[in-house]
Amino acid sequence: MKDVVCIGILVADVISKPLTMFPEKGKLMPIDSITLHSGGCALSSAVDMSIIGLKTSIIGKVGKDDFGYYLKSVLERKEVNTEGLVMGENSSTSASVVVVGDDSERSFIHCFGANAEFSYDDIDFELISNHKIAFITGVNLMASFDGAPCGKTVKKIKELGLTTVMDTAWDSSGRWMELVKDSLPYLDYFIPSYDEATKIAGKQSPEEIADVFMQYGVKNVVVKLGSKGCYAKNADGKEYYIPTLEGKPVETTGAGDAFSSGFITGLSKGWDIEKSCIFANAVGTLSVMAIGASTGIKPFEETMSFIKSQKRMWHND
């Protein structure tokens, strides 16, 4: 049995760094680097967890084009099972141009491509049943899957006996709660970023946000707070504010996915929500210390050494 199946979006990221202003029309502006990387929440998370040491699989859709074959090759090199990856004959692989400023913050020019075509019918539930945890991620960027089809999927996965975890992406359509409410009753863990969580819940404080999600049936809530770490509330009502670790940020692409990967690693090891969040913060911090969505991810023991080097409290029960 494998540890985690990641269901959601795959993206080819062309990262340009650093760019402080756009060139005038017809003009050329030199920058330090333009590089091609794998990205997308499901792909990055599957790769991150594989690097950490988990056995992972991916379910999603790409095109039979150069970007699609590139992403598939990345997954295979990182030992992620691609049996559930659909390659559409007439699809174009989703891609982003990621523009990184000199402050390490990023902006995206994005083509939805095959992610918008991904649907319930593309999902191999027999493959899913051979995993302990299902991570549904990139919600709000899959037009044919978001909303009721996603809810139907999470419900069926829960019935298969897996632990269910969900993360979201920014909803440019502004529908927010409408796109996730069908899934919430079947989630063991909901782990959105703060900005997305405020839009979905219609509340500002992490405590109020967690209460809203739990009223919809979510068992445990984690809200990612970026450089401030995270807030967590477990099924027993216990709350935690867990600060991040120290590290010099270079570029933040994939930081949220790295956090999610660290958190799910904790769940796979049977850790409680606090311990899982500490590990998640460490993985997220390591991620922003390198360029690219998964470049900074370290194996489990190296990540643990990073935590201990900062004398972070770590209970062993």
User: Unreliable runs, pLDDT <50, ≥5 residues?
Assistant: none
Name the structural class. Answer: alpha/beta
Order of helices and strands: EEEHEHEEEHEHEHEHHEEEHHH
- For this structure, the CATH topology is UDP-N-acetylmuramoyl-L-alanine:D-glutamate ligase
DSSP strand count: 13
Average per-residue pLDDT, rounded, comes to 92
CATH class placement: Alpha Beta
Into which percent range does the helicity of residues fall?
Answer: 25-40%
Global morphology: globular
Number of domain units: 1
Largest sheet: 9 strands, mixed
Radius of gyration: 18 Å
Question: How many DSSP H or I helices?
Answer: 10
Strand order of the largest sheet: 5-4-1-8-9-10-11-12-13
**N-to-C terminal Cα separation, in Å?**
26 Å
CATH architecture: 3-Layer(aba) Sandwich
Output the CATH homologous superfamily.
Answer: Ribokinase
How much of the sequence lies in strands comes to 15-25%
Structure description:
The chain has 317 residues and is an alpha/beta fold. It has one domain (2-20, 34-307): UDP-N-acetylmuramoyl-L-alanine:D-glutamate ligase, CATH 3.40.1190.20. The protein contains ten helices and 13 strands. It has helices at 41-52, 66-77, 125-128, 148-159, 177-180, 194-201, 206-215, 255-268, 273-288, 300-309, and strands at 2-8, 11-17, 33-39, 56-63, 81-88, 95-100, 106-111, 131-139, 163-168, 189-190, 220-224, 230-233, 239-242. The strands form two sheets. Strands 5-4-1-8-9-10-11-12-13 form a nine-stranded mixed beta sheet, sandwiched between helices. Strands 3-2-6-7 form a four-stranded mixed beta sheet. Helix 1 packs across helix 8 and helix 8 packs antiparallel against helix 9 (273-288). The longest helix has 16 residues, at 273-288. The two termini are 26 Å apart. 50% of the residues are buried. The mean pLDDT is 92.
